[in-house]
């Protein structure tokens, strides 16, 4: 990548951080994709429509998901150049648009989640600190649909007695309110009695908070205790279970989008594929034409 292109990429990433609130990981991913794309272009910023159109052939051996990601990065970069008056034309229309099938997330059914809770509650009844902590983790993961990073980084005083909502700082430092059930609040209260008074985090570990890797290990251990194959369960699987079971219970998709912290509703819509039978039943039962008889 030329020094001029690198300078423009730096400006673009500064804009993404300041105006869009992109996270450090997102910015690193954009930089990597733009640097890779620049290897197939004479100039990243000044690439012509024809040159951009030839990228599809140059990327023919890449996975469709990789092509889609690089195209998305270039599309946003070119849009930035046009918006800032750094080039007049936008060659994005020539970028390849591979069809990428989004895989359905793995989930647990309600009976399996219940087994995990029963096993966790039996262990927590002993009063053993790790078991009390694990039950609080499980309640927040499944009860509020938190991301692993959001859960482990919760400050000590995030969950307050009598307050059914908690402010969560999610991707891109965006904040949202999530509900905390009475069960989860009680589990956290019992855990806080065991947390050192000087701890800054709700789930401390040494001088920092619990790591995402350690959370992953804890959740798999809880699955094993419940007789569920550990490789089927992760913090993200419990988040998917939260979303799917809420949708199955009649939750509105827009409400679900807000609870999960999804910027784009299309990300949330994947859960409709997991519960298509309920959606068909809902249309047949609630649509005004459902009770209207056909005229012979």
Verbal overview:
The protein has 296 residues and is mainly alpha-helical. It is built from 15 helices and 4 strands. The chain has helices at 3-20, 24-38, 49-53, 55-58, 64-83, 110-124, 129-144, 148-152, 182-192, 212-225, 235-248, 253-260, 265-268, 270-274, 276-286, and strands at 165-169, 175-179, 204-205, 208-209. It has a two-stranded antiparallel sheet with strand order 1-2. A two-stranded antiparallel sheet has the order 3-4. β3 and β4 (208-209) form a beta hairpin. The longest helix has 20 residues, at 64-83.
Rg estimate, integer Å:
24 Å
**Count of β-strands:** 4
Query: Which architecture of the largest domain does the CATH hierarchy give at level 2?
Result: Orthogonal Bundle
Low-confidence parts: none
Q: What about the largest sheet?
A: 2 strands, antiparallel
Q: What fraction of the residues are assigned to beta strands by DSSP?
A: under 5%
**Could you say which overall geometry the principal axes of the C-alpha atoms support?**
elongated
Mean pLDDT: 82
User: How many H/I helical runs?
Assistant: 15
Classified by CATH, the class of the largest domain is: Mainly Alpha
Task: Note the run of SSEs as H and E.
Answer: HHHHHHHHEEHEEHHHHHH
Compact summary:
This protein is mostly helical and 296 residues long. The protein is 56% helix and 5% strand.
